[in-house]
Specification:
- It is a single chain.
- With 188 residues, the protein is an alpha+beta fold.
- The protein folds into 2 domains: 60 residues, no CATH class; 118 residues, no CATH class.
- A hairpin with a 5-residue loop joins strand 2 and strand 3.
- The protein contains 4 helices and 11 strands; from the N terminus they run E-E-E-E-E-E-H-E-E-H-H-E-E-E-H.
- 22% of the residues are buried.
- Strands 7-8-9-10-11 form a 5-stranded antiparallel sheet. Strands 1, 2, 3 and 4 form a 4-stranded antiparallel sheet that branches.
C-alpha cells in the first residue's frame, strides 16, 4: 500500500516491531525497509497523516476530536472565499488550525503567468505555516476562541485574541481576510 503526498512523492507503508515487541507502522519514501515488512491494508485505528508544513507523511493512530467534519469543511470553504493566499485547514485535538502558504502572492501570480499553471497547482509546492487557530470552547453552543500565531523568536507561539469568541463562521469572516497582510500583526 502506498500514499502520494501533495508534492507528488510516494510513501510506502511498513509494519515493524518496537523494542518491547509491539507492532509499529511507518511510511517511507523507499520501497523496501530493513526495519519492517510491507503491508497491503491500513490497520484498524490508523491513518495517513500529512504534515501541513512540509508534506511529510506518517502513519498515526486516528485521533478523536469534538470538532465536527462539517465545521472543518466550513472553515476550508471560508478560507477559499476570504484569504488571498492558499490555506490548509487541519483538525488538531479540539481545534481547527489554518496553515497559510508562505511567500508573496505577487510571486505566485507571476509564476502562474510564466508557466501557465494555476495557483492551486503551484500552492501544493508552497511551504505552509500556522496562522490562525480556532479552539472549540463550548460544545453545546458550538462557540470557538480564536488565536493567532506569533512567529517572533522571543515569543513564538499561539496568542489568544481578546474579545474573539463566537461562532466559527463569524470569527473566520473577521479574521481570515487578515492572513498575509500587515493588519494580521495588529490583531490582539
Amino acid at each position: 500500500m502506498k500514499h502520494v503526498n501533495r508534492l507528488g512523492a510516494t510513501y510506502y507503508t511498513f509494519e515493524g516491531v518496537t523494542k518491547s515487541g509491539k507492532p509499529k507502522y511507518f511510511a517511507s519514501k523507499k520501497s523496501s525497509s530493513d526495519g519492517g515488512s510491507p503491508i497491503d491494508e491500513m490497520p484498524d485505528g490508523f491513518e495517513f497523516f500529512e504534515n501541513p508544513t512540509n508534506a511529510t507523511v506518517v502513519i498515526r493512530k486516528i485521533k478523536t476530536s469534538d470538532v465536527t467534519t462539517s465545521e472543518s469543511k466550513l472553515l476550508s470553504e471560508l478560507t477559499v472565499r476570504h484569504c488571498d493566499c492558499p490555506c490548509r485547514v487541519v483538525v488538531e485535538g479540539n481545534s481547527l488550525v489554518v496553515y497559510a502558504a508562505q511567500g508573496s502572492n505577487l510571486g505566485i501570480s507571476q509564476l502562474t503567468s510564466m508557466f501557465g499553471a494555476s495557483v492551486s497547482e503551484l500552492s501544493r509546492f508552497a511551504n505552509y505555516a500556522p496562522e490562525l487557530k480556532f479552539d472549540l470552547f463550548d460544545q453545546q453552543r458550538r462557540t470557538f476562541l480564536a488565536s493567532r500565531y506569533c512567529h517572533r523568536r522571543s515569543m513564538e507561539g499561539w496568542m489568544r485574541l481578546s474579545r474573539m469568541d463566537g461562532s466559527l463562521s463569524e470569527l473566520a469572516k473577521k479574521l481570515l481576510p487578515h492572513i498575509g497582510k500587515e493588519s494580521f500583526f495588529e490583531l490582539q
